[in-house]
Amino acid sequence: MDEYLSGLTTEEINEKTQTIDECSTEQMLRMMNEQDALVPAAVGAEIPQIMKAVDILHQVLKNGGRMLYVGAGSSGRLGVLDASECPPTFGIDPLLVQGHIAGGDGALRTAVEGFEDNAEEGVALIERCGVTAKDAVIGITASGSAQFVIACLKKAKEIGAATIGVVNNKNSKLVAVTDVCIAPVVGPEVIMGSTRLKAGTAQKLVLNMLTTGTMVKLGKTYNNLMVDMKASNIKLYDRSIRIIRIATGVDESTAIAHLEKASMNCKLAIMMIKTGMEVKEANDALEQCEGSLKRAIRTFVKVV
Questions:
Q1: Percent of the chain with pLDDT over 90
Q2: Fewer CB atoms inside 10 A, N or C side of the chain?
Q3: Sign (positive or negative) of CA dihedral 86, 88, 94, 100
């Protein structure tokens, strides 16, 4: 038996759920819900580490680098999910935030558990992605033992990239290969070792914080409005109109006219309404303020 694995919190038996197979449906679900309620506090305890990671990621993206999630199994799928939501939410290039899973895209649908032990593929992935010292690699593994993830982080660190770990056990193998290690310990799973449960929920909350915190710092929001989103379907077009109206107080027809004039750029439309500028002048002003709408409005109008 692997001594490292046998000593992991995520591999322990949960004493509070040992009778789950004897429960009524309601008892079983309440049991799970009570265990899930432990997750936010575990994540909250890691905010000092998450804060360090967000500040690193902000600087990486601000300076032209990329952030790459790497993981295996459920952890890898969560990384791909978070990365895939960034372009429509924040209007960024899909290559800026990437998600990679051991075993490739086929592993998103079909479990290929053996790939998490493939260190050579981890090294090859970092090389294929052309990782440089400007980038950041975030490794996600509940146990902290996935060789694919460890190899990715080790190779990235050798190149000089920033490295961040997301794991659900303290003193894991990720500590030695990361600049920052985020370790929300949620305790034994409802079903022993099923880390898609509490561990996966904790990872999702952490990844939400990493991308959202970074994008907010990059000026991708105005107040709590996603002003950089792409109006790529009916729902998002409607949301863009509502965002413009909330941010500026104009009527629907004015919002539509400015959104169309701004080529469906919600942020630019708001800048034009707030300042009275035409498209090029408003766009230049935003660029001068590194894309921060609030800073641009304060700079060129002196009021928000």
A1: 89
A2: N
A3: positive
Tokens standing for 217?
Answer: 């710092």
Q: CA–CA distance from 239 to each of 11, 229, 266 (Å)?
A: 44, 9, 10
Q: Cα dist. 112→61, 69, 74, 87 in Å? A: 32, 18, 11, 28
pLDDT tens digits, one per residue of 44-72:
999 999 999 999 999 999 999 999 999 99
- N-to-C CA span, the chain: 62
12 is an active site residue: no
Question: Pick from 21, 122, 85: which is nearest to 220 by CA?
Answer: 85
Residue 65's identity, in one-letter code, is G
Instruction: Look at residue 1 in the predicted model and tell me its pLDDT.
Output: 46
Q: Over the range 66-95, which residues count as b (16 or more CB within 10 Å of their CB) and which as e?
A: bbbbbbbbbbbbbbbebbebbbbbbbbeee
Residue 252 is among the residues annotated as catalytic for this protein = no
Nearest-angstrom CA–CA distance, 248 and 27: 49
Which one is catalytic: 85, 120, 127, 287? 85
Global model pTM greater than 0.90: yes
Beta bridge partners of 70: 100, 139
* DSSP category for residue 12: S
Q: What confidence category does residue 5 fall into, taking pLDDT thresholds of 50, 70 and 90?
A: confident
Contact assessment for residue 136 and residue 163, using Cβ atoms and an 8 Å cutoff: yes
Helices and strands in the chain: count of H runs, count of E runs: 13, 5
- Look at residue 110 in the predicted model and tell me its pLDDT: 85
The helix-helix angle for 279-288 and 266-275 (nearest 10°) equals: 100
- Answer left, alpha or beta for residue 82, where phi above 0 means left and psi between -120 and 50 means alpha: alpha
Q: What's the mean pLDDT in 65-93?
A: 96
Q: Is 139 helix (H, G, I), strand (E, B) or coil?
A: strand
